[in-house]
């Protein structure tokens, strides 16, 4: 049946298309050659046997890459193993970037050696390759080197550039002229000091390497509209949260707080006091509010003014300390639940990124 359909399409194409397009149609519909079938079969078998892919993943990967001999992919796998990648990690890299298997091993080694020479080695190098294997598809001379040099110049230190890359390897993958440079220009235009811009690239590089639905300029406008001061660090923390969240996710979290009587103004108040409170899942919001409101008897709005309390570990800190607090309260050793904030060990300087 497939052969009859192919012949019919060829006859129609040859009679109705210009010669050049008719030839292209014949090539497109031509039955796969025996050598092509063998290469496809070998590739799938190799991806399963040597790379640890499932048959389904191997079939999908074979659409992107094919080879008829194991010499090149064997050499690529050896490069990865020599750098400390486990079989599971190699499988993850190959599944996401199957064409990596036909890379020139010497080029691949040169890129890895460059990263090592700049201070990204051992476990850090493995984490980078597994997190963003696409970094190794970038040109060494035309992209990796100049991007690293740009980050080093911006942060005034190679060591700081390495720290930024370790926090968000995608900042090394993307062309700085496409995402980073324009974003920095927007921050300068809205009055963020140079020192804080450098701090944000060092400490919050993920905010500059997201291709999210929320454009950087839109996110800056939203954060300013909420009343954040560009001169303060919280402006940049809030920007990172907004950049990483689409409007529907934001609305779901606002609704989750709304279930406990918070208005949108209360949500913004909590967000301004600790931007990280909006990174909690809806289930975490419901669980901590249940403990503080239903079990501890706190006013829900008390939490809006102390959002860091909600961000503590539910099982490791909130539940056990609240249990001890209730015992002390029942014995008259503590007079009011309003001292719970201090009892939980919440500090004003507590960073949401470490909770």
UniProtKB/TrEMBL annotation:
This is Uncharacterized protein. Keywords: Transcription, Transcription regulation, Transcription termination, Transit peptide. GO terms for cellular component: chloroplast. It comes from the Eukaryota. One of its GO terms (biological process) is chloroplast organization. It comes from Eucalyptus grandis (Flooded gum). Belongs to the mTERF family. Gene3D superfamilies: Transcription termination factor 3, mitochondrial. InterPro entries: MTERF, MTERF_sf. GO terms for molecular function: nucleic acid binding.
